[in-house]
Amino acid sequence: MRILLIEDDAVLGAAIRDHVAADGHGVDWLMRLDEARAAIDSVGYELVLLDLNLPDGRGLDLLKALRDEGKDMPVIILTAQDQVAVRIEGLNSGADDYLVKPFDLSEMSARLAAVARRYGNTPLPGIAIGDVTVDFGRKTVTRQGKPVTLTAREWAVVEKLVRNRGAVVGKDQIEDSLYAFGAEIESNAVEVYVSRLRKKLGREFITTARGLGYAVESRDG
Known about the structure:
By secondary structure, this protein is an alpha/beta fold.
């Protein structure tokens, strides 16, 4: 997924960014609401991690504005404010989840995955496509019942394609899920990951729509 982190604490922000990136997501980290607003308007983020107290305003004001505009990407609030009233205000403003600092980064990953599953219309974590089964809950893939080891970025490609199964996903959309702002992207990076995945999961698992992108067919096992 392409994730936007809005957090002005340098130490915590770096820790969250590195942890989310290690999970195989593309993550952009910004410290101000005006920068975040501009980024949201130009990038198709699939999830936002939002601090409430920022140098140029309240995170809740941004959240309310996004919901008023009909933007429905999931938002998880990250804040040191543990008062029940603040938590209720955040949820009523359209937040999907709420984490009180300090929090365990592994718990954050689990919450992030749970929220993404809800938005991805995958009520069950296991999706069978041919002889391949993708388990979003455990972040595992099996082929013919045997586990397949994937790197974090290979998993990110599989997740992007399977969540959009039956539809063609453009190369630029896949890159958005893999890389943050400013990251160097080799021109054939997506092709390399697709090639590796075909070797591991079978050539028929990912199809190519020439000039358009890649797809995983919506077919059961």
